[in-house]
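Researcher: Predict the fold of Triosephosphate isomerase.
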Amino acid sequence: MSRRRIIAGNWKMNKTPSEAVALCAELKDLVKNDAVDVVYCVPAIDIVPVVEAVKGTNVHVGAENFYIVDNGAFTGEISAPMLKDAGVEYVIIGHSERRDIFGENDILINQKVKKAFASGLTPILCCGESLALRKADTYKEWIERQITWDLDGVTADQVKKLVIAYEPIWAIGTGETATADQAEEVCGLIRALIAKLYDQATADEVRIQYGGSMNAGNAAELLSKPNIDGGLIGGASLKPDFGKIVNA
Ligand code: 3PY
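Model: Structure tokens for Triosephosphate isomerase follow.
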């Protein structure tokens, strides 16, 4: 089974609209690669200018968040139909920063996954353990529980289109990266869980990324692992280095 690689940048809360357009111009030639899906997941205010700036290139646009209701009295939120209409194709769901800082739990994350699919958006569903869970050696059970809850009621056909990002929290924004073997162990475990929850054909199609300080120096080794189909890239997605990761 050959899965198409997907390298997505998670810009987090960085880049004003004009800086975002300048970054798209800077990266345009560096991220050219027809064999890879390249995605920029950008702050809500950057979506419209970034969609415009990447027109005619190989870059797809993603959002970093949305709410599960189409419209109404939800001050400060943005809906899936708004994202779709603006030209967004992917959306990050359940990033550890949303879980930890904004208190999102697996019930909401599960609703978001279902709503994203129902709205024609592809979720990039994040999971990952804290340093305490890694040290206590309970990280495998934790990740299995997150994925099982987050995919409750999601169909096999949807999971075949899903992207899962394994992001150990201890490797996010710390400069620490999981070793390629540590990342492969968990990505393999996630694929085996999908086979158990659904079937082998679904597990063979779901794309699993590693995220957590992936950079130009470690991307090639991480991406050489059989269960790692791409990366969700933080800080390095804001630099020319992103092109090196796309082409690693
Ligand atoms: C990181 O690499 O810092 C990320 O959180 C990617 O999502």
